[in-house]
Amino acid sequence: MLFKSHGGVHPNDMKAPANEAAITTIPQPAQVVIPMSQHIGAPCSPLVAVGDEVKLGQKIGEASAPVSAPIHASVSGKVVAIAPHLNNLGNMVNSVVIENDFKDTPAETMVPAPAEALESPEQIAAIIREAGIVGMGGATFPTAFKITSGWGKVDTVIINGAECEPYINSDYRTMVEHPEELLKGIQLIMKACKVDKAYFGIELNKKFAIDLLNFKGAKQMGIEIVPLKCQYPQGAEKTLIKTVTGREVPPGGLPAAVGCNVFNTFTAYSVYRACYEGWPAIERVVTVAGSAIADPKNVKVRVGTSMEWVFEQTGGFAKEPWKIIMGGPMMGMAQYDMTVPCGKGTASLLAFADKEDRTVADPVCIRCGQCIDGCPMNLQPIYMYMYQQKGDVEMLQKLNIMDCVECGSCSYICPGRLHLTHAFKTGKALVQAHQAALKAKEEAEKAKAAEAAEKKEDK
Amino acid sequence: MNEERKLIVSSSPHIRTPRGTQQIMLDVIIALMPALVAAVIFFGIKPLIVTAVSVVSCVVFEIGYRKLLKKNASYMDLSAVVTGILLAYCLPYTFPWWAVIIGAFFSIVLVKQLFGGIGKNIWNPALAGRAFLLVSYAVLMTTWTDKADAATFATPLASLHAGNLAPDSLLNMFIGNIGGSFGEVSALALLLGGAWLVYRKVISLRIPVAYIGTVAVLTLIFSRGNNHILWMLQNLLSGGLLLGAIFMATDYCTSPVTPNGQLIFGVGCGLLTVLIRYFGSYPEGVSFAILIMNCCTWLIDQHTAPRRFGVVGKKSKKEGAK
Lengths: 459, 322
Known about the structure:
CATH class of chain B: Mainly Alpha
Order of helices and strands of chain B: HHHHHHHHHHHHHHHH
Distance between the termini of chain B: 56 Å
Radius of gyration of chain B: 22 Å
Number of strands of chain A: 17
CATH class of the largest domain in chain A: Alpha Beta
Strand order of the largest sheet of chain A: 1-14-13-17-15-16
CATH architecture of the largest domain in chain A: 3-Layer(aba) Sandwich
Number of domains of chain B: 1
Oligomer: heterodimer
Shape of chain A: globular
Strand content of chain B: under 5%
CATH architecture of chain B: Orthogonal Bundle
Largest sheet of chain A: 6 strands, mixed
Shape of chain B: globular
Radius of gyration of chain A: 23 Å
Number of domains of chain A: 3
Helix content of chain B: 55-70%
Largest sheet of chain B: none
Number of strands of chain B: 0
Number of helices of chain A: 13
Distance between the termini of chain A: 74 Å
Order of helices and strands of chain A: EEEEEEEEHHEHHEHEHEHEEHEEEHHHHH
CATH superfamily of the largest domain in chain A: NADH-ubiquinone oxidoreductase 51kDa subunit
């Protein structure tokens, strides 16, 4: 108690009852809307035109930049529109709309990779890139780029099976129902990363999965299962690296800076499917849960399926929802339009009927300091909030606001119900704008000086 | 979408802990109850009346002030009840009701609300109220009578202040069968309350342990008389040390929020308490020690920021680079 390790909160994990529900398949929708940007990085340009017939798994969006991932058709059918559509981040994104012919005619490219290709890191990385695999935990960073940029720097691969966000079970169900495939996927990632050791961090509320994976011979494959204490945000990249290896990623740095690369559980499973089954990232497991949901469950959803369809096909609402969230309750995005499509990184759809966020009219800080105890990045949310309210950019920088990972722990634990995390999101934007303005000013001055020098020379 | 559905869009997180300010204050109130029971056992019904007067007047002043000045309804948080109980606990049970009300006014209006209310005040309202009453009504505040109002007797603290060991047995001092402010006498009851607060994670052990530990070490080293251990134990069990260390120094609003800052704060409180007890003209130093340290809270916080994540010593840096 006196010297307890820093950071973290303990929300009720709310995994039951969906953690016992086997993954099921829902009927396909008549139409899918596939955004051309489902990842961090450059958006894709469509490879198809309105009226084109497309096959299941056919590449329909080409990624030209290195930090990007191609997009594939998640059903077979006909392209009926290419137009901007609302995505889960609240942006209008160019999207390909496909009318489903319900035939699932596979594309020629959907074949398992030849065995010899799976021996070379370069070829595995190429398959992963072509399959459009991104960080499936929700961050959606292109996986192939993560692997190739880590070559020479990374000595440790960590698989993130913490699933520390309440309600979500999609990773857990994948571990339980596809343990062998998952382990094979991890082996492929290890090979691609050119390392022979991987740690698989799993929170202790998934004891069954830990035992099962050990039983399936994880150790013999060079994969060490690391049981983790249930504590949010255990699965935050920097926190997980610290817990598993004791290394701390420097501020502003990437995991590769301390020799680590972290991959989500479902990413590893997707790598397996891409290499051994030829399936690109067009389908994923989604947990549908929350107090408004009649029957919480885990379902396979094709990318591009609207939230509305998923809710309807999983039994609908028992109570009138007041908030719909794509992603987890701690970091997910609240949605206002039910036509928003599920993407590669959609691990869960939550519908809340009770006032789970306990917002009050007049939030008051009582200086309890629990936000400091709860911050995984050792920040001081109480003071950051104070200076954010004043708009004091200098002090915000001094308090290292840019280190904030927006995990939501401070807001969660705050008894005064302050909107801390929200304040830091806007505070970070303030700091970024300030830095950009400074840089612009500097450059303008430089240009001016250069101009003046030129004039002098002319004389 | 078939029907109009009203959905709320807000920034994450979308869930919050059930425990709000009101629940925390309720836990503090629960933790304070054993001491009230002990007071009734040792002093009769009167401590109840003093506590009731104090709580009611604190609540009335709090609501009155916020309504009059059209401030938000933060009085629902029960913090005024806590202040009322704590203020009463550091009074003799014979203290007149009208003076209790004056003390409550000082605590709530002058010390708490004028600074902006909960979370904004610099000094612990109850302690500041007690200090105010002590200088205003010195005689009333230091007249200690036994249960039957019959005899005036010396508190253990008075003996210690004179440099002598108190005649009371350690057991009596532990359970609270001694003279003194009625909420402070029973160490047992206060420790029970403290255990509840720690169990419910309302407070961490940092401030109480640093505070009591500092007093223990200093009184052991600089003990008066031959029995060093007894001198130390009597110092720990007498006066308002436990009430102060468990309930007052840990006041969220007036103590540091950083973990290291809390340790420094506790040590500072302990040091000042011993200095005042040894060299001051008052026998008790707890309230002034905490009030003085309250002034340093901001300063301590500024210099005890937690180590930035990812910035580690040279040795671990090398390890990371491997």
